[in-house]
Amino acid sequence: MLEPGEIFGQFPARPPQRQTCGSLQELQIHPRGIQLLCRQGCWSVQVLTPRLLRLRFSPSGEFLPRRSWDVALADEEWPPAFFELQESPTQVHLATSQVQLQIDRDPLRFSFRDPQGQVFCADLPAGLSWGSDDIRLVKSLHPAERIYGLGERAGLLNKRGRRYSHWTRDCWGYDAQSDNLYLAIPFALVLRPGLSYGLFLHCTHWSQFDLGQADPKQWAIEVRAPELDYYLIYGPTPALVLQTYTQLTGRTPLPPLWALGYQQCRWSYASAAQVLAVAKQFRQRQIPCDAIYLDIDYMRGYRVFTWDPRRFPEPAQLMAQLHEAGFRGVAIVDPGVKFDPEADYAVFDEGLAQDFFIRRADGHLFHGYVWPGKVLFPDFSCPEVRRWWGSWQRVLTQAGVDGIWNDMNEPALNDRPFGDGGQIVDIPPDAPQGPPEERTTHAEVHNLYGLLMARASREGLEQLNPARRPFVLTRSGFAGIQRWAAVWTGDNQSSWEHLEMSLPMLLNLGLSGVSFVGADIGGFGGNATPELFARWMQMGILYPLMRGHSALGTRPHEPWSFGPEVEAIARQAIQLRYRLLPYLYSLFWESSQTGSPILRPLFYEFPDDPQTYEISDQALLGSALLAAPVVRPGVRCRAVYLPAGTWFDWWTGQAQRGPGSILVPASLEQLPLFVRGGSILPLAPPCQSTAHLRRDQLHLRLYPGDGSFTLYEDDGQTLAYQSGHWATTTFCLRQEAHQLILEIQPRQGSWIPPQRNWILEPLGQSPLILADSGQAQQIRLPTPEGSRP
Ligand code: GLC
């Protein structure tokens, strides 16, 4: 975190002369906003919606043209938004129906006000400055503000107080102090009671947020780019901020249902026989599982888009056998293409012939070292290269592979062969990239390497298999990665600290628009203890992406590898995950519509309760389930904070009233879990795979109180939902003196579920069976004394 100069007690070396913009010289009014010509440079303010403003500063006064790889919706795509301007000798005021921007004329600076007049995101006087290769803007932070998001970040939930740069990198061995990880998202969500806003720094170059490290009251934004470009997103709730942020950068499309099941990975199941043996174990032991992964050893000498002829001689047969048993197969694909001129390796030959690989500034091919030895890197910023890469996936899809796992796409490379004392390096920043008409350098698109690879992968799958919903998992990414792939948090470790950290990491990813996320269950590096593994499986139920994985050379980490007691705990956890699938699938749908995270910090639902602001070890799955996983060894009870309302213990049904903290038992078998009063939880009958999911009944757990829930359903695998083949059913629950009234609203959409029954399970009462007619129904259920909220 310290700059080298600081370690030795020297003053950090900053260029002595920094430029500032000075006073406002001329105001120009445009249909979508204004331009402010300063003594030096020019600001542009675009009003995109009443809650969304884009602010750009260019020292030269010229603004850069839009890039084909831009991750944000173009300004022209927003319908015109109304704004008002007022000018005084000292200020200019620009107001939308939601937010007011105050512009001081001399020196020029901005501050925002919410409808109550509260100031936020205000520039310091002369907060803008620039040197020869950077631009800095310093804003003030309110004492009550907490800061979240920032993509993939180690450590606890609130990111205020530290400095974070945005630069994707391979970070094996990361810990709570690490700065750059695999994925970079320069987006921050700021919260204080009654007010939340987001700031998205629209910059793919290296950039940095100092969130109060240099000065606790200041937020310094720095870019090493020719202009400063950011979006200000007003809430006032975190949910509204995310809604707008994901309108701008995209949302997670509905994944196939199988991708919500348990997924098993290992570096590596090294032969078809091993893969089948693992699959068999799952079924024999009755541990539900939907997917098995193939890590790098399925390839011939780590050449992408090949199969090892000895260990995987009949990939199509292997996939057919997996499918037969209700499993899907996911295969890893790394970006580095083996430098292999003599070997008739078509991926290399074609890529070279068409000049698809990145070259150095001097025109020579750039190479680094990854698993296959010397490799070349496709330039995914060219649409042609993405199409070519996407179509090579046919080698996998033709064999029946169901999903693609993109790894090492930061990109990760060494300057010498692996195991030869080399170090991690970057592609040189001056390496030319991009299609001829928008040539740039690696410095501008480095952060996009993983995102553009994932895009190539997803678009390729859509082409190869138009009838199927694609599944892509990626390690690296940038803002907007949610449109293309699910994300996992890379090479974590089998330690309690990593178990604990996984929750805030995933929560902050969700708050950065990336809702389909998971961490390797059990920890990737090192060996989990039986107790750690049991606790991790319980935590894993909450991960939107529930995948177990472990590194080469570690002991086995399949759910049965830690003895019968832990196996039973893992089974129970995974079974619970499968029962929750209808609920989870509806949350994924909600996320695809609104950008809401699936796994949420407590403050997301209770933004005016400051008690929730620093809670890193509890989370909500949707708005109904509150979990408080155990993240320390030997712990058999823990404190749980319950926000306002009534909460029912999942295991005992006992009611608790929040706000307040309680002590709850947490035996090794039990994940502390609570259901919000008034919840309607749709549960599936138990099953071993989503391929075997029974559709003739759906359980509805009903918890006393008032609430509603919309169940979303479709065929779970095709794109037919995009043309109306989906069904939603809205349930409303109302608590009256001695009865609970459930209203089922008429089913919407054109997907028709098979004939089935609702099995109503009011808390503490015997179940009631009701045919699902698709029509409106109302049911009155008596509530027993003890269960009333
Ligand atoms: C990287 C990945 C890991 C994978 C390994 C081998 O370390 O993060 O998940 O197993 O490479 O492919």
Report on the structure:
It is a single chain. The protein is of the alpha+beta class and 789 residues long. The protein is 18% helix and 30% strand. The protein is built from 14 helices and 47 strands. An 8-stranded antiparallel β-sheet has the order 1-2-3-4-19-16-15-12. An 8-stranded parallel β-sheet has the order 32-31-29-26-22-21-20-33. The longest helix is centred in the middle third of the chain and has 16 residues, at 449-464. 52% of the residues are buried.
Keywords:
789 residues; alpha+beta; 8-stranded antiparallel sheet; 8-stranded parallel sheet; 18% helix; 30% strand
Provide the structure class.
alpha+beta
Radius of gyration: 27 Å
Which sheet architecture does the biggest sheet show?
Answer: 8 strands, antiparallel
Strand content: 25-35%
Q: What are the low-pLDDT stretches, counting only 5+ consecutive residues below 50?
A: none
Ligand inventory reads: alpha-D-glucopyranose
* Strand numbers in spatial order across the main sheet: 1-2-3-4-19-16-15-12
C-alpha end-to-end distance: 49 Å
- Can you count the helices? 14
Q: How many E strands?
A: 47
Helicity level: 10-25%
Mean pLDDT value:
96
Mass-distribution shape: globular
